[in-house]
Give the backbone structure.
Amino acid sequence: MPTVKTKKNKVEFKEYKRENGYIKIDEKEKKLINDFCVDYSLFIGKAKTEREFHDDAISMLKEKGFKEASYYEKAGLKLKAGDKIYYSAYGKTLIAFIIGKKPITEGMHIVGAHIDSPRIDIKQNPLYENSQIAYLDTHYYGGIKKYQWLTIPLALHGVIVRKDGSKVNIKIGEDEGDPVFCLTDLLPHLAQDQMRKTLAEGIEGENLDILIGSIPINSKDKKEKVKANILKILAEKYKIAEEDFLSSELEIVPAGKPRDLGLDRSMILAYGQDDRVCAYTGIKAMVNMSEIPQYTSCLILADKEEIGSYGATGMGSNFFENVCAETVNLCIENYNELYLKRTLANSWMLSADVNSLFDPLFPSVSEKKNTAFLNHGICVTKYTGSRGKSASSDANAEFMAQIRRIFDSAKVVWQTGELGKVDQGGGGTIAHYMARYGMQVIDCGVGLLSMHAPMEVASKLDIYMAYKAYLAFMKDNRKQ
């Protein structure tokens, strides 16, 4: 569609043209992109689970003067413009606010991302021995292609909580001297039956069991000697017993650090960029706010999006609404529910989640005019869903125009894109959970290649433009 420009009585027609973002930026911004992505790679290389991301994000907030909301509540203080607070849900979901100059009831500018990623979870009673080999039984989490996880180095992350409430944090497989784990696969010579199956049927979920040991303990009393040796190691090194698995949250993720991808180092190959790429750029925008915003800024880092946002830490819970009520109460005398409803209905939100990129090796699943491209900037997705826009919030044109204004004014390189061809597939985000409050919501995030694979690909330029976009959105004063 041509863009219409009006100058007094003269109308000019200019064709809309999408370009590679590197054509639009100078050498100074290229350096900013590379410097930003060095820190990004270091961060997501350490924070591979929602708990780890949550804890590291809190450290970033505290460094910039954010306080737990309970500090103000206990002191009987009211919030004023410039105050910075945060709330945590069970160490896995985090919501932060910077109070703006305008009354909070005039609305907030919200950036909401999720910090869980597809992975393989350890079951509650996982440890067993078969043919003198020790395994951990698993249940995969989120939408994965199971065959992609076979034979690659894997790490074990998570927490074990003993009956007395004490916690043992687990991270094995990331340091240079650590052992790693893996899922085994059939050799091609014996896999004729397996290879006749579809990709979805070739590997069964119950066979995604983690190989963890093979040395038997030297004891005549133990029937399963390899399992007994693993239990001995766990007891000696981590002070945990087998029954402690019952109260644990242990996750299997790809071992290793993010890496620069390509001879030109223009991309990053890493685990969990869906959606930690948007979560990281969102929190960096939040902590780098150099002035008090006109409208209260809000950052959501949520759990459970990959399995439908269920549970106490997902956006399907009342946690967001509850903390907004607490925050409005700390801002306003004589709180009532009407103030909360006005705050939410007057808010603007970027649902900060990733989209797919056009992959020239798999062109048939995309409609090229309306898909996102690598290095074309952050992707704005007016609607998600599947088939007839099912389960989509579908942002209105007026809000899309505001997003255009904000991003263009801040010189953000951005594009629009859908998640594949109509009827090809589709997907959802947390946008529809927020749209129910009547606020303006649109999906806006970094495009990925190989989304939901153990290692995903993102453009450094697109990552940096997400940061610029979220910062500009939080700072915007809504003036035309």
User: Anything to note?
Assistant: The chain has a mean pLDDT of 94. Residues 187 and 194 are 10 Å apart (CA to CA).
